[in-house]
Amino acid sequence: MTEKFYITTPIYYVNGAPHIGHAYTSIAADVMARFKRLDGYDVFFLTGTDEHGQKVEQAAAAAGVDPQTFTDGISADFRAMSDAMGVSYDDWMRTTQERHKMSCAELWKRIEANGDIYLGHYEGWYAVRDEAFYDEGELTVRPDGSRVAPSGAPVEWVKEPSYFFKLSAWQDRLLAFYQENPDFIAPSSRRNEVTSFVKGGLLDLSISRTTFNWGIPVPGAPGHVMYVWLDALNNYVTACGFPDEAAPRWGFWPADVHFVGKDIIRFHAVYWPAFLMAAGLPVPKRVTSNGWWLMDGEKMSKSLGNVVEPRKLAEIFGLDQIRYFLLREKPFGADGSLSHQAIISRINVDLANDLGNLAQRTLSLVARNCGGVLPARGAVTADDTTLQVAADGLLALVRGHVDRQTFHDGLEEIWKVIRAANGYIDRQAPWALNKTDKVRMGSVLRVLVDTIRVVATLLQPVMPDSMARMLDQLGVPADGRGFAELGVPLVDGQALPPPQGVFPRYVEPAA
Ligand code: MSP
Predict the structure, then answer these.
(1) Do residues 310 and 18 touch, judged by C-beta distance below 8 A?
(2) Domain shared by 276 and 360, yes or no
(3) Residue 509: CB atoms within 10 Å
(4) What is the rounded average pLDDT of the residues 347-351?
(5) Total domains in the fold of the chain
(6) What is the pTM of this model?
(7) Which candidate, 195, 360, 385, 459, has a CA 20 to 30 Å from the CA of 126?
(8) pLDDT for residue 302 is more than 70
(9) Ligand 1 mean position, distance from CA 500 (Å)
(10) Which residues fall within 8 angstroms of residue 220, CB to CB, at 6 or more apart?
């Protein structure tokens, strides 16, 4: 039976339009989902929108629309953005769907039946922007006396009856769990951060609100709606059919990887496993967190007017070019700066010069000097073998990087082979062999075609459309592009379509 693999993105708040930060987490998760599919897994890839809570309720009120109509519109826009960015999700979760309300009510009941929920009174700080509670000690007092959360979000004093989750009781079990599962939180800097947060002691968590009503009702407690993070996190099991364990997708739980931003690691690595353990459900295998994209070195914000619209970037530079840039430019877990200059340089150097030229030079020589048919290999030289060995070893290397979400290192491994192939073509000079040794020329071109095929096959998850075109030109059958088929040789003598450049240089339009 095919092994199941479940990947999720965060579900996005529908309080405003999607931006490049949202697209980034989704594209990274998409790359892993596509990679796993090509590697033979039965993948379930989930994304969607987080539609309840005070922040969304306030945004709807500011827009003068009822919350459901408001969320319908923004959720549809997030979905259109995900489609436009090539995010190949299998299900689009919306937390206002009936299936989710039912699932949350059941989760609540199970935690309650376990004795982990009690009624109390919450009095403390709350940041609507983060939808998070903060202790006094975490806040910064501004000169005007106002307080802000570590994220910079303003906080307000909240005083209301509330149900609590006995998070404090889970401290030791969480620490034991992190210790037994060293790969649960990535990167390791985040694991250390989470571990020391939990070691510092956990307070019980307020999990219901009474001062507004845009949320999922607490079962049997009129006036209480669930804390939006309990509702939101639970989307990951709703999508598997919870509480119906006979549902077709139940077999995907527990998730293999939750992709999240570094801002929401605590919710996923502390609260979520505690809720699940309390409900008697298996916990996810890994939570991997991405760093932030800064715009020309500055944090993106509506007030600075530097928020980047992902669809606009794809329109200007090309979708695959942007997907490649986002994965290649910075380590996944680290912060990085987005600038037009950096994008242009990746397009013109990595894509146009290194990869595009390699394919174009090779394929135009095949078209011109081999009658447009795939040449066969002749006697093997040491130079051929070196390149061949590097190409053969690539899948295992890249797979390791995708499994660890070190995407930029995986791409660097692929580019090492591309650069080696460029060195090989220069040394072997097949254009010169055309006059002296046609058999050797054919052999050199075939080594190159086989190498480019490996590269293009492994790059499909990052640049699906461009690599489909490149594989077409290499004569790789459409149903033979999975990783297992890399072992099936291309047919000698098959006719190849006329070559066409896949990566044009980006030339700045005249101002
Ligand atoms: N709704 C919650 C998540 C609930 S998951 C059960 C939420 N939504 S969000 O819309 O505010 O942000 C979601 C994610 O978008 C962040 O965690 C992060 O992954 C991504 N990003 C938002 N801005 C970003 C950048 N500037 N750069 C990189 N990623 C960022 O939090």
Answers:
(1) yes
(2) no
(3) 6
(4) 98
(5) 2
(6) 0.97
(7) 195
(8) no
(9) 39
(10) none
Atom of ligand 1 nearest to the CA of 300: 26
Could you tell me the two tokens for 452?
């480019």
Whether 197 and 254 share a structural domain: yes
Same domain, 410 and 352: yes
Asked if 503 and 319 count as a contact pair (C-beta separation under 8 A), the reply is: no
Q: Is 167 found in the same domain as 279?
A: yes
SS3 155: coil
Which residues lie with the beta carbon below 6 Å from any ligand 1 atom?
10-13, 21-22, 24-25, 50, 232-233, 235, 260-261, 263-264, 290, 292-293, 300
**Residue 285 sits in which domain range?**
4-290
pLDDT, tens digit, 9 for 90 and up, residues 79-111: 999 999 999 999 999 999 999 999 999 999 999
Give the domain CATH number at 358: 1.10.730.10
- Picking from 76-85, 142-151, 231-240, 242-251, which range would have the lowest pLDDT averaged per residue? 142-151
Tell me, yes or no, whether 365 and 216 share the same domain: no
358, 263: one domain: no
Q: Whose CA is nearest to atom 6 of ligand 1?
A: 233
Least confident of 264-268, 294-298, 361-365, 503-507: 294-298
Nearest atom, ligand 1, residue 268 CA: 6
